Amino acid sequence: MLIHITPRSACRSSEITTETAYLSRRHFMAGTGLLLAGAAFPSLATETASRYEGVTPAPVPAWLAPKLAKTQWRTTEVSGEAITPFRDASQYNNFYEFGPEKRDPATHAHQLPTEPWSLIIDGEVAKPGRYALEDLFSPFTLQERIYRMRCVEAWSMVIPWLGFPLAELLKRVEPTSSAHYVGFETLNDPEHMPGIRSRFALINWPYVEGLRLDEAMHPLTLLAVGMYGRVLPNQNGAPLRLVVPWKYGFKSIKSIVRISLLSTQPRTTWQSMAPQEYGFYANVNPDVSHPRWSQAQERRLPNGVFSSNVRPTLVFNGYADEVASLYKGMDLKKDY
Ligand SMILES: Nc1nc2c(c(=O)[nH]1)N[C@H]1C(S)=C(S)[C@@H](COP(=O)(O)O)O[C@H]1N2
Ligand SMILES: [Mo]
């Protein structure tokens, strides 16, 4: 998502094929009902091993291990859309704190210390504080959520996240009646984040993001602490990151150190860098082109010379049934 360079990942017209049969969009059945039913996962060990495909996952931290045992698992497919191999999801990343290239996060992020980690919750909230991660998470049961992830650069993946709804955390800290937005902030650690040290970085660190309170409270909005049945790799935003599946990937901020309840709309990193290209809402929308490329299609990873894997982009990334009502009466071409 370098703002002055057309990303290499943007679809070339030669890659575009017509997708004749798109499978059911209603993969997220009956809201969260299916997830909460929490069917036991038949063989987590074998399943996880095959997902990792020879890549050694990081060890599971002490605070996560007991939670994994109680995780509510669901099936391994999203309506016939294959889960992206762990290899791709953990080695083709955007995390500018570690550098601008897709391989940079996987190369450098392992240096980042993620234990201990604490999260500041402040602003318009009855119970502000600095919370140790393990204390903060102790009440929550992890769920597996298999979501499409659509980058604004027009590539996408399908990732099985492990986490819990952000709403559960927000309810516990009790937003006041003046809280209308939620702001998020990533760790700013130049010592361990070479992208921050770089003289070429255009970003005003720390990376910041935001949601309207109703978006933050939506049951699809997840705080993820793991993926593919294990701990989050650092390059994917350990120890905790946001996942907002109906919005472009840049909203899903990684390695969060602060969550602020706010009365007014916060500044966000990409919007402040290039407001004509990246909006606050950033809802996935095939009908609103990026000024430099179309958003009508996307390249589903992994792809290759013989399988371009180009597919049509779905409005709200396929989650319209769940989230379209949040934007009733809004002009999504104006509030992009
Ligand atoms: N702190 C931080 N969060 C970030 C980014 C970033 O550069 N820094 N990149 C975003 C972008 S553009 C995308 S597409 C997703 C990528 O998430 P993934 O690497 O886990 O697939 O992370 C988002 N979160
Ligand atoms: Mo992105």
TrEMBL record:
Gene3D superfamilies, per the entry: Oxidoreductase, molybdopterin-binding domain
Gene Ontology molecular functions: metal ion binding; molybdopterin cofactor binding; oxidoreductase activity, acting on a sulfur group of donors, quinone or similar compound as acceptor
GO biological process: protein repair
Top EC class for this record: oxidoreductase
Entry annotated with the keyword Cell cycle: no
Binding-site list for Mo-molybdopterin: N93, Y96, E97, C151, T186, N236, R241, S252, I253, K254
Cofactor: Mo-molybdopterin
Keywords: Metal-binding, Molybdenum, Oxidoreductase, Signal
Catalysed reactions, semicolon-separated: L-methionyl-[protein] + a quinone + H2O = L-methionyl-(R)-S-oxide-[protein] + a quinol; L-methionyl-[protein] + a quinone + H2O = L-methionyl-(S)-S-oxide-[protein] + a quinol
InterPro entries linked: MsrP, OxRdtase_Mopterin-bd_dom, OxRdtase_Mopterin-bd_sf, TAT_signal
Subunit structure: Heterodimer of a catalytic subunit (MsrP) and a heme-binding subunit (MsrQ).
Record NCBIfam families: PRK05363.1 (NF003767)
Protein name: Protein-methionine-sulfoxide reductase catalytic subunit MsrP
Source organism per UniProt: Azomonas agilis
Lineage: Bacteria, Pseudomonadati, Pseudomonadota, Gammaproteobacteria, Pseudomonadales
